[in-house]
Amino acid sequence: MRILQGGADSQNEAAWRAELEESKIDMGLIDPLASYIGPSPTEAMRKAVMEDNAFVVKSLVTRGADASAIAEEDSGSTLLHVSAMRGHLRTVTALLQGGADPLAKDREGCTPRQRVVSDRAASGLKAVLKLWEGRKVNDVAPAVETVVRKTAS
After folding, report:
1. For the chain, what is the total number of helices (H) and then of strands (E)?
2. Where in the sequence is the domain holding 16, given as residue range(s)?
3. Predicted structure pTM score
């Protein structure tokens, strides 16, 4: 586990907090889904996606939550669109592994890959989404792990 150093930006702090929560879950100190139990599985998934909590996304999918659910009714964006727009590589990967459709289009006709905002993590996200769009599932898992490792460092 990394130690938060003075002056760390909010993204590093969020990553540190997520890592701390995962450690608590691993030690059995907290129930990973306790704070995600809500009115519907879609609401729980939406919260996990917004918080970039890939572990909870995987757990919810395992329990029957829909990885392709609509996250924003107004825009027609799926959970995958939202996660991609926010630059959440691990959550994008978890959603794809859970069955999210990488070719789903929002109301403007855009796929999740087309919604990725340009920044330093964008190339990794776009690469992962492009792999899944090709539906070469057997080739995807090792390539995704490589992209995730490279982007995380």
Report:
1. 7, 2
2. 10-152
3. 0.65
In a domain, 104, yes or no: yes
Number of domains present in the structure of the chain:
1
Does 136 score more than 50 pLDDT?
A: no
All residues at 6 or more sequence positions from 5 whose CB lies less than 8 Å from its CB, including other chains: none
Nearest 10 degrees: Cα torsion 111, 112, 114, 117: 160
Look up residue 130 and give its two tokens: 């492009």
Tell me how many degrees the CA angle 96-97-99 measures, rounded to the nearest 5: 65
**CB atoms near residue 15 (< 10 Å):** 16
Average of per-residue pLDDT across 96-111: 92
Distance CA 79, CA 19 (A): 22
3-state secondary structure of 77: strand
Are 19 and 1 contacting, i.e. CB atoms less than 8 angstroms apart? yes
CATH of the domain at 141: 1.25.40.20
